[in-house]
Write a structure and sequence with these properties.
Layout lengths: L11 E5 L4 H16 L3 E6 L4 H6 L3 E4 L3 H9 L9 H24 L4 E6 L3 H10 L3 E5 L12 E3 L2 E3 L5 H30 L8 H5 L5 E4 L16 E3 L16 H8 L5 E4 L8 H14 L3 E4 L14 E4 L4 H4 L5 E4 L3 H10 L3 E3 L6 H11 L2 E3 L7 H12 L2 H11 L4 H13 L10 H6 L7
Parallel strand pairs: 1-2, 1-4, 2-3, 4-5, 5-8, 8-9, 10-11, 10-13, 11-12, 13-14, 14-15
Antiparallel strand pairs: 6-7
């Protein structure tokens, strides 16, 4: 647990975030860490998470409705590799711009600092208009654009070997056809009501707070690029799933795990509600392999009606308790699940659909921790061959165990808390660890 704050004064930290459990859980972890340091933390997000947030002793302010969240989850285009961004933009990001701004405007005082998810555009507007100290938080490296090596942009590789003119043209096209196409007009219309000038090419620079950018991933997962914002600090993965060990694992899941060899776990993520083919192909792959398997989903209606022996379905499970006892995880590539899998020390088979998932899967392959197989190519035969190869790869499993030791969530949260505290007015505080590490402490 991060140590108590001994700095200038107690703060009220507003924490806007949007998305699924993988987006909200790290922010809950941050809120809990801030509260342990005697600050007041308020999470601004969808009411779907209100009870969970308030159970941790944190304050809550709503954006949207539970019905809005369910409608977004049910949209079959949410996971489309081309159309998915439009769904996120129109169903989550755009409706939240004015709401998040107004909440910050209403609740900010002289002791307020904002640490906002990068897709919470209203927080950046509030920073400009109201002057509230603000950090931008990114859970995944794909949000921080680079003209050097950008990893995967969707399912397309942008590497250091490609000419600069090509990468500039590529990102200009992406902005024109996708990002600004969805976001620029509604954002600038709202800015105009506040007397602010219009902004263009939002992901190029504007998205990132000029005061502080916090990357909740380690530099060994994504090497900082020379053209990233110089105020970027990589702190590491922040893990939280509401569990406190095996005591919070449903008894039926515990009994299944205890009944035989470590199972292969399949999940399309907490918001994956239209993944019938993923489960159909997965069950057939399990039949071919003859392995035990757990199918994890909040939406059991997408599962096959009949499951073979040794295969069982479960709702939400605390992965911090379950994954260390699994043989392998087959999943969508969401950053929260990915971090839990690395911590568990098990191999990965990433099945990306869209958004940041292709980049996350590619990085898992670069680290030698697993494989990535696009959802469009995910068939029982290929899945079975990939699972068998991963289960039989002794050196890979050893690397997984070694990387598990690198995950230090408490240290990541402590670093994030210190960065947020340093946004408060007054001289910046430098810890002994910062001083010893020098500029590289910021991951630049």
């Amino acid at each position: 647990m991060p140590t108590s704050y001994t700095g200038r004064r107690r703060l009220h930290v507003l924490l806007p975030t949007l998305g699924s459990s993988g987006d909200v859980h790290p922010v809950i972890a941050l809120g809990v860490a801030l509260r342990a340091r005697m600050h007041r933390a308020t999470i601004i997000t969808n009411p779907l998470f209100q009870t969970l947030i308030e159970e941790q002793g944190l304050q809550f302010l709503p954006v949207g409705s539970i019905e809005d969240a369910h409608a977004a989850i049910a949209d079959p285009d949410l996971w489309h590799r081309r159309k998915g961004f439009g769904v996120v933009a129109q169903r989550m990001m755009v409706p939240a711009i004015a709401r998040i701004y107004r909440l910050i405007e209403a609740h900010a005082d002289a002791d307020t600092v904002v640490a906002a998810s990068g897709i919470c555009l209203g927080a950046r507007v509030a920073q400009e208009k109201l002057g509230v100290p603000t950090a931008t938080m990114h859970l995944q490296p794909s949000v921080i654009r680079s003209l050097v090596d950008a990893g995967m942009v969707g399912d397309f590789r942008i590497s250091a070997s490609q000419p600069l003119w090509f990468k500039r043209a590529f990102f200009r096209l992406v902005d024109w056809a996708v990002v600004d196409h969805e976001l620029k007009r509604p954002l600038n219309e709202f800015r105009a009501t506040l007397g602010l000038a219009p902004v263009h090419r939002l992901l190029r620079r504007w998205l990132h707070s000029p005061q502080c950018v916090i990357g909740f991933f380690p530099d060994w997962f994504a090497r900082p690029q020379p053209d990233w914002p110089p105020q970027t600090h990589l702190v590491g993965f922040a893990l939280w799933d509401g569990a406190r060990g095996a005591a919070h694992t449903p008894s039926e899941a515990q009994e299944f795990i205890d009944a035989g060899e470590p199972p292969v776990i399949f999940t399309p993520g907490s918001a994956g509600s239209t993944m019938q083919r993923f489960f159909l192909e997965s069950v057939e792959a399990v039949r071919k392999l003859g392995v035990r398997a757990m199918l994890v989903t909040n939406f059991p209606e997408q599962l096959p009606r009949e499951l073979p022996p040794g295969v069982s379905a479960f709702g939400y499970l605390p992965f911090s308790a379950v994954l260390p006892r699994a043989a392998l995880l087959v999943y969508h590539g969401g950053i929260g699940t990915l971090a839990q899998s690395i911590k568990a020390g098990i191999p990965h088979l990433v099945v990306p659909n869209g958004h940041d998932q292709f980049d996350n899967g590619w990085r898992i392959e670069q680290l030698g921790l697993g494989r990535s197989l696009a959802q469009t190519r995910y068939r029982a035969g290929r899945a079975a061959a990939s699972i068998r190869a991963l289960l039989d790869d002794g050196p890979l499993k050893q690397r997984c165990r070694e990387y598990a030791e690198r995950i230090d969530s408490p240290a990541a949260l402590t670093s994030a808390c210190e960065l947020i505290e340093d946004l408060a007015p007054g001289p910046p505080r430098q810890s002994e660890a910062d001083a010893a590490a020098g500029p590289l402490h910021a991951g630049i």
